[in-house]
TrEMBL record:
<dbReference type="InterPro" id="IPR018060">
    <property type="entry name" value="HTH_AraC"/>
</dbReference>
<feature type="domain" description="HTH araC/xylS-type">
    <location>
        <begin position="192"/>
        <end position="297"/>
    </location>
</feature>
<dbReference type="InterPro" id="IPR009057">
    <property type="entry name" value="Homeodomain-like_sf"/>
</dbReference>
<protein>
    <submittedName>
        <fullName>HTH-type transcriptional activator RhaS</fullName>
    </submittedName>
</protein>
<dbReference type="Pfam" id="PF12833">
    <property type="entry name" value="HTH_18"/>
</dbReference>
<keyword id="KW-0805">Transcription regulation</keyword>
<dbReference type="InterPro" id="IPR020449">
    <property type="entry name" value="Tscrpt_reg_AraC-type_HTH"/>
</dbReference>
<dbReference type="InterPro" id="IPR037923">
    <property type="entry name" value="HTH-like"/>
</dbReference>
<keyword id="KW-0238">DNA-binding</keyword>
<keyword id="KW-0804">Transcription</keyword>
<dbReference type="GO" id="GO:0043565">
    <property type="term" value="F:sequence-specific DNA binding"/>
</dbReference>
<dbReference type="GO" id="GO:0003700">
    <property type="term" value="F:DNA-binding transcription factor activity"/>
</dbReference>
Length: 298
């Protein structure tokens, strides 16, 4: 097994890269002026990391997927994630790196909103690919953060730094929205496969044993992270992946309600519900009627 390195502090990462620490909770630097990360290692991050890659930048792995970086690619890492480093012999560090510890943002709007940036939980093969204009916007924000770190710390420093990080992340939200749109063909294919998987799941006859399907189940079958899959479905259809699962359940339930030889509880169990009252509640929420009322009306 590859050596395991646990990094809880930004300063520890800086030491690995041979970079000067200007602030204990945040670091911004150009990778071309740093050392490569130790090869064939697994690194646990205790802080946020944002990488803007320029050219081939080695191979990292998160979860089960690899990503061989191209020019103008952004990758986001959240505290608690583990990355594997596998570089070629002639690998040279390039691009820009931003690291910041959660303690840096405490009491700021970024601390309240950080959980909304779901791309921190995307897999590496779901990275953000930037146009030249988009790259320049991100590089300008990196430069502003570098400038602020080069100044003496005062009462304004924390808010200015956190506001610039938040602005950078908001631009990334915009750029990801653009990426979802420009990959319409790929997204349509994923939607089609999702619908087929939904049908297969409920036609398998195993739902009573396997229970209700989760968003994570379908994301895994499609080789996507749950967050990326959920965001893609929401942006393409206006409904969440969970809503699509519920709609499929209600459609099937409406068909089976007319089988008067089966009780509502039997139908609920067959669909994968553990408790019939949960089925009743979902059915009424979506139709305005209880299953019994719907059966009687029709």
């Amino acid at each position: 097994m590859d050596p395991f390195i646990k990094l809880e502090k930004v300063t520890q990462y800086n030491q690995l890269k041979g970079v000067e620490t200007q602030h204990p909770l945040i670091s911004v630097f150009d990778n071309s002026n740093s050392k490569p990360l130790p090869n064939h290692t697994r690194i646990h991050f205790g802080f946020y990391a944002i990488f803007l890659k320029a050219g081939n930048c080695g191979e990292l792995r998160y979860g089960r997927n690899n990503y061989d970086y191209d020019d103008g690619t952004m990758v986001f890492v959240a505290p608690g994630q583990v990355l594997e480093v596998n570089n070629t012999d002639n690998y040279k560090s390039t691009g820009l790196t931003l690291l910041f510890h959660p303690d840096l943002t405490r009491g700021t709007s970024l601390a309240k909103n950080i959980s909304q940036y779901s791309f921190f939980s995307y897999d590496f093969h779901e990275a953000l690919h930037l146009s030249l204009k988009e790259q320049q916007i991100i590089k300008d924000l990196f430069s502003k953060l570098e400038y602020e770190l080069s100044q003496s710390i005062d009462k304004h420093s924390k808010n200015i730094i956190s506001n610039n990080i938040e602005l950078l992340l908001n631009y990334c939200v915009r750029f990801y929205d653009r990426q979802f749109i420009t990959r319409a063909n790929i997204n349509t294919d994923i939607l089609s496969k999702f619908e087929n998987l939904l049908n297969e799941y409920f036609q398998s006859g195993n739902t009573q044993d396997s229970g209700l399907p989760s968003v994570g189940y379908f994301a895994d079958r499609l080789h996507l992270s749950s967050n990326y899959f959920g965001d893609l479905i929401k942006k393409e259809t206006g409904k969440s992946a969970q809503e699509h699962i519920h709609l499929k359940l209600i459609t099937l339930a409406k068909e089976r309600i007319f089988d008067t030889e089966k009780s509502v509880s039997q139908i609920a169990f067959e669909l994968g519900f553990k408790y019939p009252q949960h089925f009743n509640r979902m059915f009424k929420k979506n139709t305005g009627y209880t299953p019994i009322e719907y059966r009687n009306l029709n």
